[in-house]
Amino acid sequence: MNFPSFIWLNGRIISTAAARISPFDHGFLVGDGVFETLVARDGKPFTPTRHWQRLVASCEFMGIKPPAFDAYLSAIHEVMQANGLQNARVRVTLTSGDGPLGSDRGDSLATMTVAATVLKPWPPTETAAVIPWRRNERGALVGIKSTSYAENVRALALAHAQGTGEALFANTRDELCEGTGTNIFVVVNGRVQTPPLSSGCLAGVTRALTLEACQAAGITVDEIALPIAILQTCDEAFLTSSTRDVHPLAQIDQRMMLGVVGPVTQRVAQTFRDYVVGRDDP
């Protein structure tokens, strides 16, 4: 893997080769941290305010001091400039800093890193597999963009082993929930539907923009509890995320989907593009 030459770490740009985080950092020890991933195009971060607001909410829940907006935005620009990137995938990570070898917290300052890598395009369509593990919609970290991502790592590895690009979760009620890094929408009898936040899914920034775009265009979207079995009968399906925007699904498990030729998916994708065009921070 090609890592960027520079990273932003605790207030300054430093070479990636020289960057060091303590082996006692609680993010490393127990996954005690939060993060955001956003994209930048033509040197401009997209939706930085929404991502910062969610980062602050995650920090406040986790008891980690969040960065001020100006410092956060400056760090993003600095690391992009240091790596000569105009189009980038940007990752902002905060942990609670050094701590004991267990779940108790220490009294150290938070650790913050900002990394930027080349923004790579996704293929026109995606494939997905429903994995056997469940999201706990009543868990402590529901709605929190936590660094505790081992569950997603295992799920995505299983999906890849089955020849697909994303893993889809049900929750403990056998309702459709989300992907490892995506929200999911389905089309049933011409109507767009997506799991509500009460399903345990993350409140995705692109999910919210898609809902707003559809509302502005007069496209009804039902936020409704859906059985996981809906993926066996829905007419179309698509994913949303900050790096994917609206991404049509061409296959779920062994079932072939309409993908980019799905008429409703096409309309939603165009509606999303029209809604955000020319707006860096909608």
Description:
The protein has 282 residues and is of the alpha+beta class. The protein has two domains: 6-118, D-amino Acid Aminotransferase, Chain A, domain 1, CATH 3.30.470; 126-276, Alpha-Beta Barrel (D-amino Acid Aminotransferase, Chain A, domain 2). 26% of the residues lie in helices and 30% in strands. The chain contains six helices and 15 strands. The protein has helices at residues 26-30, 48-62, 69-82, 150-161, 205-217, 263-276, and strands at 6-9, 12-15, 33-41, 44-45, 88-95, 111-118, 126-135, 166-171, 176-179, 183-188, 191-194, 221-223, 236-241, 245-252, 255-256. The strands form two sheets. Strands 7, 8, 9, 10, 11, 12, 13, 14 and 15 form a nine-stranded mixed sheet that branches. A hairpin with a 2-residue loop joins strand 10 (183-188) and strand 11 (191-194). The longest helix is centred in the N-terminal third of the chain and has 15 residues, at 48-62. It starts with 5 loop residues before the first strand and ends in a 6-residue tail after the last helix. The model has no long low-confidence stretch (mean pLDDT 97).
